[in-house]
UniProtKB/TrEMBL annotation:
Entry-linked InterPro entries: DUF924 (IPR010323), TPR-like_helical_dom_sf (IPR011990)
Organism superkingdom: Bacteria
Protein name: DUF924 domain-containing protein
Originating species: Thalassotalea litorea
A matching Pfam family: DUF924
Amino acid sequence: MYERSARFSHGPHQQISTQTRIKTINDSIESVLHFWFSELSNELSPKSQAELWYAATVQQDKEIEDKFAYLIERAGSEQLSDWQNTPKGSLALIILLDQMPRNIHRGSAQAFAYDALALQYCLDGIDKGHDQSLCLIERCFYYHPLEHSESLTMQNLCLLKFNELEDEYFLDEHIKVIQNSLQFAKEHADIIAKFGHFPHRNKVLKRKSSAEEMEYLKTAKRFGQ
């Protein structure tokens, strides 16, 4: 009787444990997304978030490391792959693997260490339709692994996705964000079309630059790296 009672009493405890785990996962996902996007309004982040995204200070880079290095490491070793089951979870993985390493490891090869995995999650998410469930600014970042890829096929897919956004949104403030994102995407695609890779990564990735690339690098954008 005792063994039978113990066995049946395990159910509620297991259910509570599962509920606690789900809440912990959701809280972790929310912490990543809220830090990156802040409070969303009309499908956009506050304009002040642009500093974090495109002109982060040393202090902001350090804050990202302090708050999220552990999650980045876990995501990079695929311990958070179950996050990929939901649109928000998938987006959080992309932020952890594609965006935050560029802050924490700015100017080093480690900045690009998780690009392949981020791209894998991005493509899988597109296949599942995850991106379609996200708001505008979230979708802009969802496609960044495509933009960061050194594959022209991925670059062209990125352009396609931003062009699709142009067809879906009509408010001036939305169009401005999309056009800005599309301009950056075109710049990245043009570099890959010309060189087959990003020359500004050559030094940290220990790739030899051609004479043409050396000349290009004298005035080239480095996109934060």
